Every structure is written in structure tokens, then in C-alpha cells.
Amino acid sequence: MLRRIRFIAMVLMVLMTLQVVAFAVIPENAPSRAIDILGDDKVIIDDKKSLEFSIMTDDGLIGPCYSYIQMYNGQIYCEGRTSSPYIADRLTLSIYLQEWRNNKWVNVENWVSHRYNFTVLIDGALTSNFTSGNYYRTKCVHGVLLGDKYDSFTTYSDSIKAP
């Protein structure tokens, strides 16, 4: 009896996996997943679901940070988080709403915030500045100033399609 239940459970898992794969449709003009390699060989992979990940930068001034995007009450909500393992003299978070236009990401709006003598800065913004049917993502530039050392890092959210 236990073998039968295991077998049925396995068959159901395989069928559910095949169903997801069979019905996954990605439009031709959709941008690729947010994977970018910066000039300094830093790889950024992020997801729109506010996933945090640890960052080891050259000076080690930047801690876990993220970029985030979602639709909220008919508007686009962009959010970012900058952190440092130290009490930084200044944390900077530059948030950019980017639109996929002519096969490249273009900045549409941006917001900048600073926090002094802290370890974490989280900020977000709502905007109605979007076109229905287009793809959008959040780009965040995270900066930490500690004494005479400054370090920055860029993250990107995954893209969403505006309804």
C-alpha cells in the first residue's frame, strides 16, 4: 500500500512538472531574465520577489541588498535596500524605473535617498508613469561611504509586464 501511494505521488509530481513546462509561454519581445555583468565583472542576478543576497565588494563595505518591483493598486512600486556591515557615514540608494524599449533598458524615472550613520537604508516609490503592455524593472545603485572609502554596487529586479 505504501509503495502504491509513493508511486502515485511520484506520477502526480511528474505530471504537474510537465504541465508547468508545457504551458509556460514567454512572449517573443520579452526581455531576458535580469542577469547583468558589469564592467568590473560583478554578476547581478535578482528576482522581483525581494530576494536578498550577500555581496562581497572590493572593500567589503556593502552588505545584503536588493531591488524589487511589483504592481500595486494600478501603479508600479519600486523598492531597494542598501546595507553595510558597518555604521556607515552615508548610505545612498538610487532607484531607477527602467522600461524595455527597442531591445534595451531605458531609465524612465529615478529617486535618490541618503541615510547617515546607519547600517540599513530601505526606500521605495510608487509611480503611474508606465505604458500598459510594456516591460519594466527596477535598477538600484547602492553606495556606502565610510571615512574616505566609498563602495557601490548595482542590482536589478526581474522584469514585470504592466497590465
Descriptive account of the structure:
- By secondary structure, the chain is mainly beta.
- The protein has a single domain (29-161), classed as Immunoglobulin-like.
- It is 13% helix and 53% strand.
- The chain is built from one helix and eight strands; from the N terminus they run αββββββββ.
- The chain has one helix spanning 2-23; strands at residues 35-37, 43-45, 66-72, 75-101, 104-127, 135-146, 149-156, 160-161.
- Strands 3, 4, 5, 6, 7 and 8 form a six-stranded antiparallel β-sheet that branches.
- Strand 4 and strand 5 form a beta hairpin.
- It is flat and about 70 Å long.
- The relative contact order is 0.22.
- Residues 17-29 and 32-54 have low confidence and may be disordered.
Top keywords for this entry?
163 residues, mainly beta, Immunoglobulin-like, 6-stranded antiparallel beta sheet, 1 helix, 8 strands
Layout of secondary structure:
Elements: H1 2-23, E1 35-37, E2 43-45, E3 66-72, E4 75-101, E5 104-127, E6 135-146, E7 149-156, E8 160-161
Antiparallel strand pairs: 1-2, 3-4, 4-5, 4-6, 6-7, 6-8
Please sum up the structure shown.
The protein is mainly β. It has one helix at about 1-25; strands at about 35, 45, 65-70, 75-100, 105-125, 135-145, 150-155, 160.
State the helical fraction.
10-25%
Name of the CATH first level: Mainly Beta
CATH architecture: Sandwich
The parts where pLDDT drops under 50 for at least 5 residues are: 17-29, 32-54
Number of strands: 8
N-to-C series of helices and strands: HEEEEEEEE
Determine the structural class based on helices, strands and strand pairing: mainly beta
User: Which of globular, elongated, flat, extended, rod-shaped describes the shape?
Assistant: flat
Taking all residues together, what is the mean pLDDT?
Answer: 76
Main beta-sheet strand count, sense and barrel state: 6 strands, antiparallel
Tally the helices: what do you get? 1
Q: Whole-number radius of gyration?
A: 20 Å
Work out the strand percent.
over 45%
- Distance, first to last CA: 49 Å
Query: Which fold name corresponds to the CATH topology?
Result: Immunoglobulin-like
Counted up, domains total 1
